[in-house]
Amino acid sequence: MKGLFTVITANNSIQTSSIEAIIQQGLSHLVHRGRHKQYSFFTPVSTDTILAIAICSSEEQANIHNDERNYIAFDGKLHNTDAIKEKLQIHTILSDAELIFQVYNQLGEKGFSLLEGYFSFIFYDSHQQTLYALRDPFGNRPLFYCQTDHYIAIASEARALYQSIAGVQGFDKSAIVDYLLWGNIAQHPQHFFSNIQTLQPAHQLAYSLQNKTLNIQPYYTLAYRSCLGRFDSYKANEVAVTVKQLLVRGIENHISGRKNIAIGLSGGLDSSSLACCMANMDKDINITAFTVVNEFNEAESIFAEKIVTKTKAKWIKVLCTSQQLLKELETINYYQNIPIFNTSSFAQYKLMESASQQGFTSIIDGQGSDELFAGYIMYFYRFIHELSSEFMCKEWLQECKHLSNAHLTCKQVLFESLKYNLKQQIGQTKAYTCISRKPLLLALNEEAKQSYFHQKKPGKAYKETLNDYLYESYTQDLPHILRWGEHSAARFGMDCLMPFADNKALTEFVFSVPSIYKIHKGYAKFLLRSAMNDIVPDEIRLRTQKLGFYTPEDQWLLQISNGMKQGIEGLPDPEDIIKKSFIIEHWDTLFSSTNQHLKGFLFRCFSYLVWRNTWT
């Protein structure tokens, strides 16, 4: 695990000592990623700028590598080193950083498109006097950047920029209101800062020190087929075999050379597939499975235990309670850099903490499978709609006949389809918000609401097929989900390894498969279920209710309601967004309401205020 931090001055009037102070300040907010630090200064003779590249690492040597021309601070791992060496005819043993030098020296910045794996890095070409910053294709590793009149800075976490670069302080009120109203952890842009931006996955930032120009562009674009197709049993079997082969190959990239491995095990299909594949691939590997449990019910632990038995894993049950949530929320929000949306993120954080306490420096996680293989209920509605729009009556009737496999009824499908069409027509406009979030709007101050509704919202691209929705989910929404696991693991100096989200070959193949093979006879993730035949026990493989990092949120919020109320009443709200007097006056009514959105809204108000007061 590493933390990256880079600063470029806009002119040479700023002293090197001032840059060094900024570097030290920035690294101080990344020290949980690694306590070993190194930084280098560059003062190109033909420019009036100073460049500083810094890295902190959990390894004793936090190296900034160089080949006398190029310099790189690299975090992560390349998965396709052998393929790159074969393509470029390289026959020597090289580290990932050294291989990137070879790629760049032979192909220039176009060579970045060859890179596969999970990574972020800062790269400086001293001859061209150009700095590059890159994130991996699907967003496993984060990078943030900011630009002021005096500086351009890049870091692994937003807090390092906010606390060290003058002029970037400020919060995006519209993003805060959106967070409070909707609480959509996947689709919220998570840009809570007015002057700090996220470098998107598969993008490169290039800054010319000589011309003082900044350019951001994609270095890779995922291709996909936007078609429904016709189901063919023989073809389905072929596709499942390929999915299995590619998944196993991707897992091998993570476990090769390891004898001890940690995994977050929920008992659902995703984590169970990873655990069972690892056990099949290496009979001598020692698997330690971590499962979140609570004091109210067995939740997912019943199913996790079956996988533990099959894989002969060591099992550690991580007990999470409401009092832990209340006590540790400030710390969790501090290291997440943004306020948590729900209690599942708290459970994930505690699981990472437990793995760290057991001495692990990395953990396997199943994130990305739902977006890749169509695991969410909402995808079923889109699929049914696609079948009807293509007049595929036989297939439509078949899926309706097997609605029970998706735990749905015809009434639910009809209602959700109408709801979705309404939302498509008017979007998250004031009218739609007033219809669906009216009680929540009463708890927000007028100025904040007016600013939110007057701000133009970026529109979503038109989507017609299930693959269109999956593509949007995987390329745009998934990175928001991945950051929670990455930041939670980084808090404890760990790597969060996500084989469903960093496997380029698997991703490209699945997105080349028509929609008809993604959901079949009511079964979401049909391809993965088929691929895991004879690997994952059928009672898990064919299981249709999935809870992930399950938490008894309603019971927990009831237990900590007084603490939440006191926090909302007592914590400052510098942006004056929440109408505290209304919430406190109507607390009992709001908290006991049958409106499913209200408890979550009150928790987000509390979480936001706790988070907001971690910033100075």
Low-confidence residue ranges: none
Physical arrangement of strands within the biggest beta sheet? 2-3-1-9-8-10
- What is the number of helical segments per DSSP (H or I, 4+ residues)? 26
**Structural class, please?**
alpha+beta
The shape, in one word, is globular
Structure, briefly:
This protein has 616 residues and is α+β, with helices and mostly antiparallel strands. It has 26 helices and 17 strands. The longest helix is centred in the C-terminal third of the chain and has 26 residues, at 466-491.
Description:
The protein is of the alpha+beta class and 616 residues long. The protein is built from 26 helices and 17 strands. The strands form four sheets. The chain has a six-stranded antiparallel beta sheet. Strands 4-5-6-7-11-12 form a six-stranded antiparallel beta sheet, with helices on one face. The protein is globular and about 70 Å long.
